[in-house]
From TrEMBL:
Keyword Nucleotide-binding found: no
Signal peptide (UniProt feature, chain positions): 1-32
SUPFAM superfamilies: Porins
Transmembrane segments: none
Protein name: Outer membrane receptor protein involved in Fe transport
Key words of the record: Receptor, Signal
Domain TonB-dependent receptor plug: 56-187
């Protein structure tokens, strides 16, 4: 690797790949012509573009992305977040990707219109598949899992989907129909691949290497980076990433077809840490995400289609308990499910029934459930050994979602269509430590004189365990917290057309027997075709969305009460015993909700379609953990927030630009956003913004006055201005597709505890908060794909992708510990992939 010092930020770069990219981009191509198996039509036709679904004309917040477009976009690691970034209503965390830790495989989280990232709805084939375990605790924990609190590292995404296995993704960000519930943010509705009528088999292999990446670290962290110092994957200078993928389409008779997809994305990297003796110890880590999807569809019945599916997604990585207690552990985030979809048509009626059983889990498996320390080993051997045992948290949900769409009917000059539906689910979840974890601490009977270790007691002349006594031990007891509940929802959704007006109005009622409340969510949207020609439309809407509740609220402080500790004298007598109380207070929770008000304008200007949209979200009764006057903790509905979001988009999908035998479509989007929230994170640790990160004060001193917490800027997902440009160009004669994604993000502002206090006239002290603003960032991701026809029935595949072509980075550190930590956004990296399709 070549090392260059630029503005005290070290860049580790490789130069031959950018040259290759430039050469491919400027290479001449033959004129357009028929290309048979490449598209099945004229190659200059560009189907399946990014558009708002025409079926949801009055719901301007819908964007549909098809299988073909997913394959063409530069989606990097192929996670949902990489796909969501093209939507201007979506924001990703400033802590999502770090330049120094590129080997970590965890997908990013994302937010819609400033709402909490854990309050999105994730659906697969019509069924809610979100994780309600502890989704707000999303930080990876490669080391030191907690024994007195819940283990973190979960995610709201029950399945870490590989987007290459999807047939279509529908993204709802505003004016969301009543058929969707369980969110205050947005909806991601994924449709897995079905049999497309043509038998095929495709195999792909991709690689990414640290030699092809430009890393960015501060000068003070340079040595730590080069040595991969630590055990928490903060620095990963040496890594290898591989991607394996298989996709099968196979007919199983006249009316039956199979779609099968398998993928594995894996990363291996090294870490080094300093053990208790001050010696460097190397350790190799593995991080991987596996996906499997299999689906069989049958269409042999009249007016009836049936599909059944199996899905599996698992991310697994290992870690070290701590530099002192160095036993290995592995953590996994797994989703496995089976589902079915039934669709029946009769006399213009449409009845669908979606069913599913999904088991989602976050587990930690340790090499040992005993850890101990020995004073006799001081100076010669590691004093501490062992590990922290296993943890399991699991959610099993059985879901049933019927829907009945009635025939369209007419009343005077108006046309109407009513849809009735519901959801019924039973959820069983638990957090468990399956076995006791034991800790033993041994001290010297008599300390050695003038040296480390113990004075000899057993006559063998050395300091060893025979010279010790048990000074204290602790039991981190086995325990389990379970939560079982039934959720019920019914809804009606009606579309009406009257003259130049298109209306959609609905009502949704949700209930679960855990919170024991009925939540009524009205939905309304309207579309007014001002001139009657479809070219100029005014749109508006008013909607309420109710969110989700999590197992974490039920666990609260219970884990602490499983623990006890005992102290002994040299004779082995217990001299003191400590037990720990469950500091959970009684809770009376309600479902958080957000009210949305939307105003939009749609305009067709020749070949260009434009859309301007203002969305206001007012969040109420968001849940946060607080400590009461008695020292007990409870989750309460006391957090609020307001986000105003303005988006402007242009595209020319209806009229692709055809020039010199090429065909190009582009989409340009802008977003302006202002977001305030009382869901504030921990200014010292530089994390949070979720339900477990409550501030103890109700007011702080900010910008020269006392303010309540909900007047502070949102902790994260609060980019004030962003711009996105997506272009896709096809070179049909050369069988090449070139796509680009240009993304500009203005630096966001966070209010941070300065560490100082302000005192009012009554001598009451308040924390002083000050603004910290990040720099702005512009990145360009680019992908080149070539599909040569090798034989009449064999197609090759080569793909070259570069993310952050400009290699622009910013420091994303906003913590009060900035003097100790320097975190940068991801640098330039490259990905190569090859494959064949039969």
């Amino acid at each position: 690797m070549e090392i260059t010092n630029v503005d005290k930020v070290y860049r580790y770069t490789s130069t031959w790949l950018p040259v290759s990219l430039l050469w491919l981009a400027v290479s001449p191509h033959a004129p357009a012509q028929e290309c048979g198996g490449y598209t099945g039509e004229k190659c200059t036709t560009l189907p399946h573009v990014l558009v708002t679904s025409s079926e949801e004309k009055s719901a301007t917040g819908v964007q549909s992305i098809t299988e073909e477009r997913i394959a063409e976009l530069p989606t990097g690691a192929g996670n949902l977040a990489d796909l969501m970034k093209i939507n201007p209503a979506v924001d990703v965390s400033r802590h999502g990707k770090s330049s120094a830790s590129s080997a970590v495989m965890r997908p990013e989280e994302f937010s819609f219109h400033g709402q909490p990232f854990y309050q999105n709805l994730f659906m697969i084939d019509g069924i809610d598949t979100g994780s309600d375990l502890n989704p707000g605790s999303n930080n990876d924990v490669f080391s030191t899992p907690s024994l007195s609190d819940v283990v973190g590292g979960s995610s709201p995404q029950g399945y870490y989907l590989n987007v290459d296995l999807l047939e279509q993704v529908d993204i709802y960000d505003s004016n969301i129909p009543a058929s969707f519930g369980g969110f205050t943010g947005g909806v991601v509705n994924a449709r897995m691949k079905r049999f497309n009528g043509k038998n095929s088999l495709s195999l792909h292999y991709g690689i990414e290497r640290d030699e092809w990446e430009s890393f960015h670290v501060t000068e003070k962290d340079r040595q730590k980076f080069e040595q991969a110092s630590g055990i928490n994957a903060e620095f990963t200078p040496d890594y290898r990433k591989n991607n394996y993928q298989l996709s099968l389409q196979q007919g199983l008779g006249t009316n039956t077809g199979l779609a099968l997809g398998l993928s594995r994305r894996e990363s291996s990297f090294s870490q080094n840490y300093t053990d208790a003796l001050g010696q460097q110890q190397p350790v190799d880590y593995q991080d991987s995400i596996n996906n499997l999807h299999g689906r069989i569809d049958y269409t042999g019945f009249n007016n009836l289609e049936i599909g059944t599916s199996l899905r599996l997604s698992e991310r697994e990585h290992d870690g070290i308990t701590s530099p002192r207690y160095a036993d290995r552990f592995s953590k996994s985030h797994r989703g496995i499910g089976i589902g079915s979809n039934l669709e029946y048509r009769f006399q213009e009626h449409l009845i669908t029934l979606d069913t599913s059983v999904d088991m989602l889990s976050d587990t930690m498996k340790a090499a040992s459930r005993t850890f101990e320390e020995h004073e006799s080993r001081e100076g010669t051997l590691a004093r501490q050994t062992g590990g922290f045992g296993d943890v399991e948290q699991q959610q099993t949900r059985i879901s049933l979602a019927p829907k009945w769409q009635l025939p369209e009917w007419q009343w005077g000059n108006s046309h109407h269509q009513l849809t009735l539906g519901g959801n019924l689910s039973h959820t069983r979840s638990y957090y468990e430590r399956p076995e006791d974890v034991e800790f033993f601490s041994y001290a010297c009977v008599t300390d050695a004189s003038g040296a480390n270790g113990c004075a000899d007691q057993n006559g063998n002349g050395i300091s060893d365990e025979g010279d010790e006594y048990l000074q204290r031990d602790a039991t981190y007891g086995a325990g389990k917290v379970s939560l079982n509940y039934v959720s019920t929802a019914i809804y009606l959704d009606q579309k009406s057309q009257w003259h130049n007006w298109s209306l959609r109005y609905g009502l949704r009622a949700d209930h679960n027997n855990w919170l024991k409340s009925w939540d009524l969510a009205p939905r309304f949207s309207a579309d007014w075709d001002l001139l009657g020609d479809g070219n100029t439309r005014l749109q508006f809407g008013a909607n309420r969305y109710y969110g989700r509740s999590f197992l974490r609220y039920a666990v609260n402080d219970a884990v602490r009460s499983w623990n006890s500790m005992r102290f002994y004298n040299k004779n082995g007598d217990v001299v003191r015993e400590i037990t720990y109380d469950d500091r959970s207070a009684a809770q009376n929770l309600e479902t958080p909700y957000a009210d949305e008000f939307m105003l939009g304008w749609v305009q067709h200007l020749g070949p260009v379609d434009g859309q301007l949209k203002l969305v206001r979200r007012e969040s109420e009764k968001e849940i946060i953990r607080k400590k009461n006057n008695e020292g007990l903790y409870a989750y309460v509905n006391s957090a609020t927030g307001i986000t105003n979001s303005l988006t402007l988009e242009f595209d020319h999908e209806r009229h692709p630009l055809e020039l010199a035998g090429t065909s190009t479509v582009a989409r340009l989007g802008f977003n302006w956003k202002n977001s305030t929230s009382s869901l504030q994170g921990n200014s010292t640790l530089n994390n949070g913004g979720g339900y477990d990160d409550a501030l103890t004060a109700d007011k702080v001193y900010y910008q020269g006055r006392l303010v309540s917490l909900d007047e502070l800027p949102a902790w994260d997902y609060n980019t004030p201005f962003s711009a996105r440009l997506t272009t896709i160009t096809q070179f049909p004669a050369a069988r090449v597709t070139w796509s680009n994604f240009l993304h500009y993000r203005q630096g966001s502002t966070q209010a941070r505890d300065s560490g100082d206090n302000w005192q009012d006239s009554s001598n009451t002290r308040y924390d002083i908060y000050e603004d910290v603003t990040l720099d702005s960032l512009m990145t360009l991701d680019s992908r080149l794909q070539w599909r040569p026809q090798l034989l009449s029935s064999v197609e090759g595949y080569l793909m070259f992708e570069v993310s952050n072509l400009f290699d622009e980075v910013i420091d994303t550190s906003t913590s009060r510990l900035d003097a100790l930590n320097g975190n940068f956004s991801a640098g330039r990296k490259f990905w190569l992939e090859a494959g064949m399709k039969f």
